[in-house]
Amino acid sequence: MGSTAAAANTGAITADRVETKYALPRAAVRPFLRVAARQLPLHRFTGEGANVLPDAQQFVTSIYFDTRSHAHFCAANDDREHNVKVRAREYYDLQPSLAELATDPSQIVRYQPWVWFEVKERTDGRSSKLRFRLAKGEVAAFFRKQHPAFESQSREAGAERATAADELSSIVSYLNGLTEPLVPSCIVNYQRIALQDASASLRVTLDTEIGFYAPPADLWQRTEALVRGTFGLPAKVESHALVELKCLGTPPDWLERALLDVGAVCVSYSKFVQAAQAVHG
């Protein structure tokens, strides 16, 4: 996914940013959050379908895709600073305040009937991301290249692209350039707490209970949320939490001091690589 794809999202923290990761002991999660929350407000999704109920716990389920020869895993494992990852990401909330009223566990889950499909490129410590929203029922057809996006791409082949910021077109171009089809490789599930400044120039995410799973056979037949515990036992659960700093510039001194004070360790870490190793050996 060369420079054209990477340029499609410049200027946004979710697209072109410096990413630094830290392994955080589980006992240090609350002390770190107390310090970070004094400096940065909690950040929650507020777009279409957002959960407006208070005190919701946000979870993320990411389905990583790879070729049957594990080409993306091999590339990411060989070079952690230069690689491409392809994933579908679903967000869902658990609402503890509804637990006493619920007659079924699904009643405390809030989610949307779509996933965010992403192609993420990492180059020399910087990450760029192309993403678009895809209805869950369309994912299987998308990977068979039977989605309307591929028909549009075919009709426009040879013509100059209307805009470099067309993320879907860039993603389709990347997938069309692969020599092998992609299939679900592994699943990662974790609870996420996010903090972000008002200018969106600094984002801090804290991921806990990071679990790795093999994809179930009926993955794309499911219409409900991919909730932890509904796709089998984990191949592995990380013993630590993970803090990620996503910055358009240099992290503030207070944040680096806070991480140092709670014993966080800077790491080169890939959820995809760890999950693929746990699931596929």
CATH class: Alpha Beta
Q: Per DSSP, what share of the residues sits in E-state strands of 2 or more residues?
A: 25-35%
CATH architectural name: Alpha-Beta Barrel
* N→C terminal distance: 27 Å
Which sheet architecture does the biggest sheet show? 8 strands, antiparallel, barrel
Helix and strand element order:
HEHEHEEEEHHHEEEEHEH
For the record, what is the CATH homologous superfamily label? VTC, catalytic tunnel domain
Helical content stands at 10-25%
- Count every beta strand, where a strand is a DSSP E run of 2 or more residues: 11
**Radius of gyration from the CA trace?**
19 Å
> CATH topology, which one?
mRNA Triphosphatase Cet1, Chain A
Report the structural category: alpha+beta
**DSSP summary: helix tally:** 8
Shape: globular
The total number of structural domains is 1
| Biggest sheet, spatial arrangement of strands | 1-6-5-3-2-7-8-10
Average pLDDT: 83
List low-pLDDT spans. 1-14, 154-165
Features:
globular; 281 residues; alpha+beta; disordered N terminus; mRNA Triphosphatase Cet1, Chain A
Can you characterise this structure?
With 281 residues, the chain is of the alpha+beta class. It has one domain: mRNA Triphosphatase Cet1, Chain A. 23% of the residues lie in helices and 33% in strands. The protein contains 8 helices and 11 strands. The protein has helices spanning 3-6, 29-39, 71-78, 139-143, 148-155, 167-176, 253-261, 271-280, and strands at 17-24, 57-66, 82-94, 109-111, 114-123, 126-135, 183-196, 202-213, 236-237, 241-247, 265-267. The chain has an 8-stranded antiparallel beta barrel, surrounded by 4 helices. Mean pLDDT is 83; it is low at 1-14 and 154-165.
